[in-house]
Design brief:
Helices cover 50% and strands 7% of the residues. It is of the alpha/beta class and 256 residues long.
Amino acid sequence: FVMHMLVFLQNYPDHFSTNRFCPLCCCSHHPRSTSIYNNISGHKINTTPKKFRKPRAFIKDAEDFYAAMRLLDERKKIGFGAIKKGRAKWKYQCAEFVNNFYDYRHHLMETDTKNWLKYIPPFDGIGSIINKIGKRHILFISTTRDHKSVRFLLKKYGIKMKEENILSGSQGTDKIKHMEHIANICKVRVNDIIFIDDILDQVIKANRIGVRVILSSWGFSNMKQKNEAKKLGIPLANIKNLFSIVGSVAKAEYFD
């Protein structure tokens, strides 16, 4: 059973104001992150939580942030395809943004820990649900976050996870490869794996190779993506029904 890091730790409050931002837990609308973008692009953009909420549904990792901000800056339409093309077009700028992005995140982790953690508490009730699921399934984390941040957060929140069961951005941001790695070390087929994520593109790609998938409703996926998931027959879970949805998906017959 594989869970995206968001399931545990990305709980962005709805009470953001224009002068109080998530300090680079993963959001690109933090003033420092905007400053990094401006320095690299040579442009001047001012993103706010409200302005960035819509494109956030299409962002999978830190490189996507730069591409999305650049598209916002140029007032172009944002989607999975547009971001992918943007990453290719602004390859070196994306790489530079990522390096600066993580340098500053780690700086905040080490020098302003209390304030940083305040903005990324676990979702209410998710801890007990995860522990309950963990009694029946082997748990893994698949995330595009850097390994240092993942270990730091798990430790701070007292969440126990075997080191080898954490697949982070340090091991690559391709979650298909994460799934294949899990199948290999566990000696199972990919369709024995259940993967939950809030990014529809990630869920669809995993499903294409045979992984059983669930789209989480408490993350960044928007209503259009949730409706698309339903049309594709992809289960949609919230925190309250997660345990039962996982049970149903695990029991369902799967044909290659």
